[in-house]
Amino acid sequence: MIVIDGSNKPLGRLASEVATLLRRGYPVTVINVENVIISGTLRGVLPKFKRRYELRTLGNPIKQTPRWPRTVEGIFRKAVAGMINRKDRSKLLKRLKVFRGNVKVEGKKIGITVRVPSRYVYLKDIAKELGDKI
For residue 98, what are the CA distances in angstroms to 2, 24, 78? Predict the structure, then answer.
């Protein structure tokens, strides 16, 4: 099992690395997901997320309205799922475990080096604004 610390890593870059590892057949665990960052400011990023929750359909909203996650773990899993082929998605996501905080997990810890943007917002701040009880 591969363990990745998500602290101060951009969401998209980390999600693409995790998706690549999943496609190669490794089980992946990501810890400290609440400290994953998204480039931009809270005022610039939050309207994009809030706009998704306002989508409604004319049909039955329970059956047909798209559902978007509000928790930190759900937002990260959705980002990883978007980078995996639909045919393989359910099989590969079973190998992904996502945790808040610094959880003790057995496995090989690897470090992913990515460029950090100058302005960013933490995923926990976005999830808190969307209604996650952190």
Answer: 12, 18, 11
Q: Kindly write down the DSSP assignment for every residue of 71-95, as one continuous string.
A: SHHHHHHHHHHTTS-TTTHHHHHTT
Residue 105 scores a pLDDT above 80: yes
Q: What pLDDT, on a 0 to 100 scale, did the predictor assign at position 134?
A: 66
pTM (predicted TM-score): 0.89
Q: Where are the alpha helices (DSSP H) in 1-134?
A: 11-23, 42-53, 61-64, 72-81, 89-93, 123-130
Structural domains for the chain: 2-130 (3.90.1180.10)
Q: How far apart are CA 12 and CA 50, in angstroms?
A: 19
Using CA atoms, how far residue 5 sits from 8, 45, 77, 89, in Å, is 9, 23, 15, 23
Residues whose CB falls within 8 Å of the CB of residue 63, separated by 6 or more in sequence, listed in order:
none
25 CB-side CA count, 13 A: 0
